[in-house]
Amino acid sequence: MNVFYGQRLIEWRKSRGLSQRALAAALGVSQGFVGDIESGRSHPSRNFLTSLSEHFRVNPAWVLEGREPQTFEDEPGFSSNAGRITPAPTGKPLAGHFEIDGREFSLISRLDGHVSAGKGAAAVDGLEKDGLAFSNDWLRKADLLPDLSTLIRVRGDSMAPTIPDGATVLVDLRGMTADVPGIYICIYDDDVFVKRVQQLRDKTGLIGHVMISDNPLYPPVVVTGQDNYTLRIVGKVALVMHTL
Question: Is domain 103-241 in CATH 3.30.420.10, yes or no?
Answer without folding.
Answer: no
